[in-house]
Every structure is written in structure tokens, then in C-alpha cells.
Amino acid sequence: MKRIIVVALATVFIASCGQPEEVDKELGNLLHQRDSMQELISKVSQQLNEVKKQINLKDTTIQIKSVLVSTVVLKPEKFEHYLEVHGIVETRKNITLNAEINSVIRTIKVFEGEKVTKGQVLVVLDQEIIQKNINEVETAFEYANTVFQRQEKLWKQNIGSEMQYLEAKNRKESMEQKLKTLKSQREMTIVKAPFSGIVDEIFPKEGEMASPMAPLIRLMNLDEMYITADLPENYLKTIKEGNQVMIKFPSLDIEMASKIGRVGQFINPANRTFKVQINLDKSNEVLKPNLLAIMLIKTFEKDSAAVVSSAAIQYDAKGKEFVFVVQKDGLGYFAKRSDIKSGQSYNNKTFIFEGLSGNEQIIIEGARGLKENDKINVSQ
Q1: How far apart are alpha carbons 257 and 281 in whole angstroms?
Q2: Percentage of the chain surpassing pLDDT 70?
Q3: Crossing angle, helix 128-156 and helix 162-187, to 10 degrees?
């Protein structure tokens, strides 16, 4: 075998000593010679490994230690890949109510946990000063209106000046508008529920000062709940409205199925993500706003796929993927390297789209440290 290599090298050396006519031609010859030598060395190396294998098996003075491995027979199966993301439960109606004016809280008419209807009075603020102003303006308005009516009758009879008529009319309309303004301010002292829901939290106590900057009551309605989550932008082509989603709530130890209700159109430049929204069944009363949810969104599916344990895949120095399969002959079981190309991985399983036919016996444990043609002992 060594003689073959020496003769080949000598032949290449003699061929390369000739005086080339052109530099390009010489380079081409050298590249061709290199490729020929590499091909020859590869073939010789394979033959040498086979010879060593036979020697090791037949030489009784050499004790070969077999490596204990466990295997699995590859069978075509369905492969599914899910994107796992975290989301937050939200509700479309979850607000904090504030007072519209600064005033003392006189009465809180509800309690925490109480169900209320739209328009129901929740809090009443002090109205004393506003009511006094209303009483004063009502008296002034009645007087101004009486004067205006009398002046209007005289004006129709061509008695009195136009200026007197206009002044009476202006005074009456001014008092009327002022009265409307004061009554609107009085309405601001009454805080009502903008929608039906549950009083979740009451922040102040009766007698304390309310202001537009301080919250009074948290009101929420749990009939329209949903989950929002941020997904990486590389899933834009995969994620569509209507995609099936499996939702897990770790805190409640429950699972449920749903669908993607909306896919956001905006990509956040800060983290390159887009939002998705998953609607929830309103009948599930255990779900609360801001509850953490784990969503499994199916992004890939293939029937009759070659699927191996992710732990069985190894990489050589050049980054090529491979697995060891069992090769059996009359001399026993041996490890054979099989180069592969893998696709997506999920749940410790990897989809193989090239390199495996689908019926190989894959070494899944004990493969680390194995070399081509190593003798193995397959555990039962």
C-alpha cells in the first residue's frame, strides 16, 4: 500500500518538473494534480481503514474493546415544530376612574368586588359650594328672564329703545348659560360607571380629597379577554390569522386551544418583533388580566419525516453534521458515519431532510467519541 503512494507521488513529481509554456497552464496542471492526489489519498485511506479493521479482527494478539451503545431504529413519523413565546392576558375594558374636579369625597356607593351596571353611581363628591352657586344663579336668571319678557312685550309695542331690549336679552341669555355651566360642574361631582363590570379596587376613603390626578376606582369587565405576545420578525411569513395555538397557564396549571385573532402590522425597531393577539373564551372566569401565558404556535409540519434525537447529531471540525449508524457484517457491529443535513428542531427532536433514508439504526447514546468503523456493542 505504501508502494502505491510512493509511486503516485513520484509520478506527480516528475510530471510537475517539466518546463510549462504558460503560467496559467502550469497552474491548471498543478491544481489538477492536487485534486488527483487528494482523491487517491482518500481512496487509499479508506482501503487502509478496511485493512486495519480486518487485521484487528483476525489478529488474536490484539484485544479490541467494543463500545456499549444504545440505538433506535429510524421510522418515518410526523414532525411538528412549535414556536414557544410568553404572553400576557389583557382585557379590553380595564380602566381606573378619576374625578374630573378637585373636591372632597362624600359617599362611596360601591364596594370592592361588586358587579355594577353602566351608568350606576359609584362615588359622590361634595356639591355644597356648587349648589349654592346654582341657587344664586337660578334666582338671578328668573329675575333676568322676567325683565326680558316685559321688555320684549314693550319692544313689540314699539315702546322703549332697542338698546334696552338687547341689554335685557343679553342678561337673560348670560344667566341661562352660566346656570348650564354650573349644573355641568355639579354632574362632575358624580362618578358613574362607563360600562358594566366589576369594581376591582377602591383607592381613596370617604372624606379624602379627590383630584383629576389621583385614581378613584379600578373598573374592569372580563367578558372580552385576550393575550398579546411579541414574536420575532423572521416568523412574519409563517404566522397568520387563524393559526392554531396551544396556551398554557403555569400559575393555574391549565391548558386550552385557541387561534390567532390578529397579527400586528408594525415591527418594533427596538427588538425587531411584531405583536399577535389571541382571543380567549369569555366563559373561563379563572383568567385574570396580566396573567402570564405560554403559547405554542405551530410553524412547521411534515408527515413521514426522518426524525432523530437532537443529542445524536454531531459536528466535525468543518462544521458538517453527521450521525453514527449501526453497520453489521459477519464480524460484528460497527459504527458508520452518515453525513446529514438537518432542519428545524423541537422538543429534543430534529427533522433530517437529507442523508437518511428512514430505516437506519441510529446510535443515540455512546456516540460521543466514536470513530468510523469502531466496534460497538448494541445494548438490548
Answers
A1: 10
A2: 90
A3: 160
